[in-house]
Amino acid sequence: MRRIIAYLVRFAAILVGYAVAALAASAFLNVLFLGHFGYAPEPGHPTIAPALYFSVPFIALFVAYFGFMPAAAVILIAEVLGRRDWLFYALGGAIIAVIFLGFAHNIGDGEFDVTDNNVRLALIGSGMVGGIFYWLSAGRWAGTWRREPLPDPES
Fold first, then answer.
1. How distant is the alpha carbon of residue 81 from its chain centre?
2. pLDDT in single tens digits along all 155 residues of the chain
3. CA 104, 38, 123 angle in degrees (round to 5)?
4. Which of 132, 117, 147 is nearest to 74 (CA)?
5. At 77, phi and psi to the nearest 5?
6. What's CA 90's distance to the chain center, in Å?
7. What is the pTM of this model?
8. CA distance readout (Å), 77 to 74, 81, 84
């Protein structure tokens, strides 16, 4: 019974970590594109903060949707191998972004393809940020569900 509870707790931690990673990647993309278009968030500026309150979770939905399958593979590999280092997750996030870019290029729709190198680098960077935030929230405990419980000292 303890093992089932450990699996469920780990699964919940993975889901929360994935949501945190999607939000972090979305926030990074939003800040990059705001800076690219010349919007500097000044203290007390009335329009930037409400726009970010809406756009960060909205873009996070797309980040989570398009990155789900490759992220599931990276998370599964990390859990099975017990990888707990931040670099693994940062590179995993970059690989997830590259897989998305390859998918967007091969889909055959010219409107969906990402052709600007700055946007490609921004997407890869946001994948790395998402991977690091996944590591911060869930990846540091990867593979802990596989450990055998310690014997009870009272028995």
1. 19
2. 777 888 888 899 999 999 999 999 999 998 888 888 777 666 666 777 777 888 999 999 999 999 999 999 999 999 888 888 999 999 999 999 999 998 888 886 777 778 888 889 999 999 999 999 999 998 888 877 666 555 556 65
3. 25
4. 132
5. -60, -45
6. 9
7. 0.84
8. 5, 6, 11
